[in-house]
Sequence to fold (358 residues):
Amino acid sequence: MGNYKIAVIPGDGIGKEIVPVGVKVLEAVASISNFSLSFTDFPWGAGYYKNHGLFLPKDGLEVLKQFDAIYFGAVGLPEIDDTLPAMSYTFKIRNSFQQYVNYRPVRLFPGLKSPIAAKEQKDIDFVVVRENNEGEFVQAGKILYPGAPNGLAIDTSIFTRSGIEKIAHFSFKLAQKRRKKVTNVTKSNTLVHSLVFWDMIIGEVAQQYPDVAYEKVYVDNAAASFVLRPERFDVIVTTNLIGDILSDLGGAIMGSLGLGGSGNINPENEFPSMFEPIHGSAPDIAGKGIANPIGAIWSGAIMLDHLGELQASGKIVSGIEEALLSGIKPVDLGGSASTDQIGEAIIKRILSDKKVAN
Fold:
């Protein structure tokens, strides 16, 4: 029986409410499976920064390296400069641990209606694969003379052949396990150096997967298709910035950002991967017990899938589906169930099947 060591970082705001619920769900599925999970909590994030001047301690990365995975909530508080959490926490972990894949599935759960009234469950089922270490978010730039008439600001995107090839191969291999279609979402008609280079390399990799259909779509067209024709997509591969925006739009067409789960993945398992809901810390509703924990719970399922515990991952997803089908819905979906009640409903359905997940 395997044992997985999981670093738990609830972070800030609603992260302190949804992550404990997610941990309970993970403990429940482990209790009927032939593996175990060992959790270690860390109080890092913007709240930690207020007291220590750092989002995680100086040896934080060395500490996290000892774990099989990181289960994370959200980072950020209104009183903390909003430019700091990404640079000092999220990007620091993603880049240091070479989590170059940001995996964000989009699907319409049974029992829910999409804001796109004409679309059904079969129409909304795709994955946004976002390049997670390069592109527009590398923060290579500078502000000069900000208060002067000649002030200027520069941000430089960085794309490397190896980085593009890695995310492309991940996307095509994923598509081979799904419906065998990859859509490259780009803007190379205006970013005529960086994204022409991106398209060229994605196209080269596409030729190595003749069993996978390949198309290139500009981001403005893709955004419209998310709303009008989401059924056209299977696996989307795109850049850091475009993927960040489109995956939130994906959450919206599911019904709420509170539903979205994700993984920051190092496919080679040289470092731990980090799993988190796609939403932020939502300090405006923190402490009210109404936060939607499904995104965090789904992220736990994605974590188990990455660790190779596919049946246990499926049990969590089935538990989410069955709870929603029974009418148990969080406030952001028009329901009245509390954060804890949703977790309890999902656990009840997981434990109703006592068969061991191998």
Remarks:
- The two ends are 10 Å apart (CA to CA).
